[in-house]
Design brief:
- The chain is α+β, with helices and mostly antiparallel strands.
- Among the domains are: 107 residues, no CATH class; 129 residues, no CATH class; 71 residues, Arc Repressor Mutant, subunit A, CATH 1.10.10.
- 49% of the residues lie in helices and 6% in strands.
- It has 22 helices and 8 strands.
- A 4-stranded mixed β-sheet has the order 3-2-5-6, with helices on one face. A two-stranded antiparallel sheet has the order 1-4. Strands 7-8 form a two-stranded antiparallel ribbon.
- Helix 13 packs across helix 14.
- The longest helix has 38 residues.
- About 9% of the residues have low confidence.
- Belongs to the sigma-54 factor family.
C-alpha cells in the first residue's frame, strides 16, 4: 500500500438545479402548478404578477377634484398663508393611524382573488366525509335497551368491521375477549354478535358469504326454501355455473336453478360496502382540443389561471443604487436568479406540453374522428423522437395531465397504448383487440361458449395474432367469466 496523487479523467452526469426545477414544473398538473407559484411568490419578494385592471365602462369617469372627499384632496402648500387647514387635516390623519405599522407583504386584489379561486378548487377536490359504517351501527346500538356487558362486546365487534371488506366479521369472537375468558363470557359475546347482526344493513357482521346471504333471506320470497338450500350447500357450484351437479344433488330442474340464481342476485354480498368513502376528483384539463371550421384539430393550453410573472422593477433599481450594501446586493441577485428560473421553467412547460400534445393528436387523429375502436398503437419513445426530447420528458409532460376533447375529458396517458401486428403488417392497438374480443363473446352461442383457445383462432381469422395467455389476461381484466361460467344450460338441453 502506498499514498500518492494521480490524475484521471472521469465523465459523470449531473443535473443542474435549474434543470431539476424545470422538470419538476413540467410534471405538475394545473392545480399543483398554481400552488407552486403561490408558494414561490410568498417566498420570493422579487416576484410579482401582472394584473389586468378591468376597463372602465362607458360613462364611468375618474373622480374630479370637485367631487373628491376632503381627505382625498391633494395637499398644496402655498408660500403665502399659514396653511392651517392643511396641517389640521394632516393631524387628523396621523391620529387615525394604528400605533404599530404592519410592513408585511400586502397582497393585491388580484392575488386575493387568485387565492380565493385556489381555495375553491381545493374545496371542490376535498374528499367528502359521509357517516361511516361504524358510526351508523353505533348510533343504532345506542337506541337499544341491552345489558352493559353485551353492549361493550357489541361495540368491540363494530370496531372491527371494515366497509372496504363489505362489513364482514373477520375477527374470531374469542379474540375480542380476555385471554382468561369463561364460557359465560363467550355466551355474552354470541349474544352481542346477534345484536350487531340485527342492525341495518341486513347481513352486517356476517362471518362468511353464505351466512351473509342467509341473513338476508325472507320467508316471503317465492323460492325461499330453494334459495336457502342453494346458499347453504351449493354456493360454490352456483358461482362456477355447475348447474348439472346441482341438479343431480337436489333434483331441481335446470330452469328452476336458473330462476333461483336470478333471485339470489337481489341479495347484497357486501352490505357494508355502501359506506365506503368515495373520492371523485374535480379534474382541471391542462389542454383543450378543438376542431376549426375546416375540421383541423387545434391545441391550446388552459393556463389562463396561471399568472404572468415578472421581476419587481423596484428591486432592479435597488440593485443599481449606490447605497445598496453588498449583503443586500447578493440577496437581490440570488432572488432574481430564482425568479428568472421559475419564469423560464413555466415558459418551457408551456412549450413542451404544447409540442407533445400536438404530436399525440396528430398520431391519434383517427381516435378523435372515429372513436376508441380506431386508436392506434403509440409509445412515448415515438413522441420523444418526433418532438426531439428525451422519453422521460414526455413521461413527465403527460403525467397527471388531462385533455378536454370533443369526445370528453381524457387523461393524456390514455392515448399511449401497446399493440401488435396483423398478418398484413398493420399495427393494431390492444384496445382494438379488446373491443374485438368483447364483440366475439357477445355474439357467441351461449349453448357452447367460445373457449380461450377458440377466441385465439377467431382473432387469427381477423388477422390478429394473439397468444392464448394474452386472451385469458384481457378476458379477466374485462370481468368476463370463463366459457363454463358463460354457458346457458337451459339452452344446452334444447
Amino acid at each position: 500500500m502506498s499514498m500518492g496523487l494521480q490524475a484521471r479523467m472521469v465523465q459523470t452526469q449531473k443535473l443542474a438545479p435549474r434543470m431539476i426545477q424545470s422538470m419538476e414544473i413540467l410534471q405538475l398538473p394545473m392545480l399543483a402548478l398554481q400552488e407552486r407559484i403561490e408558494q414561490e411568490m410568498n417566498e420570493n419578494p422579487l416576484l410579482e404578477q401582472q394584473e389586468t385592471e378591468p376597463a372602465p365602462e362607458e360613462g364611468d369617469l375618474p373622480p374630479s377634484a370637485d367631487n373628491r372627499s376632503e381627505d382625498e384632496k391633494e395637499l398644496v402648500v402655498e408660500d403665502s398663508g399659514d396653511n392651517s387647514d392643511d396641517f389640521e387635516r394632516l393631524q387628523n390623519m396621523v391620529s387615525e393611524l394604528p400605533n404599530t405599522f404592519d410592513d408585511s407583504f400586502r397582497r393585491s386584489s388580484g392575488r386575493m382573488q387568485e387565492e380565493a379561486d385556489r381555495r375553491h378548487d381545493l374545496m371542490a377536490n376535498a374528499q367528502s366525509r359521509p357517516e361511516s359504517l361504524n358510526d351508523f351501527l353505533l348510533h343504532q346500538l345506542a337506541e337499544l335497551d341491552i345489558d352493559d356487558d353485551v353492549e361493550r362486546i357489541a361495540e368491540r365487534i363494530i370496531s372491527t368491521l371494515d366497509a372496504r371488506d363489505g362489513g364482514y366479521l373477520r375477527t374470531p369472537l374469542a379474540d375480542l375477549l380476555p385471554s382468561d375468558h369463561t364460557a359465560e363470557n363467550y355466551e355474552v359475546a354470541e349474544r352481542a354478535l346477534q345484536v350487531v347482526q340485527s342492525l341495518e344493513p341486513t347481513g352486517i357482521a356476517a362471518r362468511s358469504l353464505s351466512e351473509c346471504l342467509l341473513m338476508q333471506l325472507r320467508p316471503e320470497f317465492e323460492h325461499f326454501e330453494e334459495m336457502e338450500k342453494l346458499i347453504s350447500s351449493h354456493l360454490e357450484d352456483l358461482a362456477a355455473n355447475r348447474l348439472p351437479q346441482i341438479q343431480k344433488a337436489t333434483g331441481y330442474s335446470i330452469e328452476l336453478i336458473q330462476t333461483v340464481r336470478a333471485e339470489l342476485q337481489i341479495l347484497n354480498p357486501k352490505p357494508g360496502a355502501a359506506f365506503m368513502e368515495t373520492y371523485v376528483p374535480n379534474v382541471t384539463p391542462d389542454i383543450i382540443l378543438e376542431q376549426d371550421e375546416n375540421g383541423e384539430y387545434k391545441i391550446t393550453l388552459d393556463d389562463d389561471r396561471v399568472p404572468s410573472l415578472y421581476i419587481s422593477e423596484y428591486y432592479r433599481r435597488r440593485l443599481q443604487d449606490q447605497s445598496c450594501t453588498e449583503e443586500e446586493r447578493e440577496y437581490i441577485k440570488r432572488k432574481i436568479n430564482s425568479a428568472q428560473w421559475l419564469i423560464e421553467s413555466i415558459e418551457q412547460r408551456r412549450s413542451t406540453l404544447t409540442k407533445v400534445a400536438e404530436a399525440i393528436v396528430a398520431h391519434q387523429k383517427k381516435f378523435f374522428d372515429e372513436g376508441p375502436e380506431a386508436i392506434e398503437p403509440l409509445k412515448m419513445q415515438q413522441i420523444a423522437e418526433k418532438v426531439g426530447v428525451h422519453v422521460t420528458t414526455v413521461s413527465r409532460a403527460v403525467n397527471d395531465k388531462w385533455m378536454q376533447t370533443p369526445r370528453g375529458i381524457i387523461p393524456l396517458h390514455r392515448l399511449f397504448v401497446g399493440g401488435t401486428q396483423t398478418d398484413d403488417g398493420e399495427d393494431v392497438a390492444w384496445d382494438t383487440i379488446r373491443l374485438k374480443l368483447q364483440e366475439l363473446i357477445d355474439s357467441e352461442d351461449k349453448r357452447d361458449p367460445l373457449s380461450d383457445e377458440s377466441l385465439v383462432k377467431k382473432l387469427a381469422e381477423e388477422g390478429m395474432t394473439v397468444a392464448r395467455r394474452t386472451v385469458t389476461k384481457y378476458r379477466k381484466r374485462m370481468g368476463i367469466p370463463s366459457s363454463r361460467q358463460r354457458k346457458d344450460w337451459s339452452l344446452a338441453k334444447k
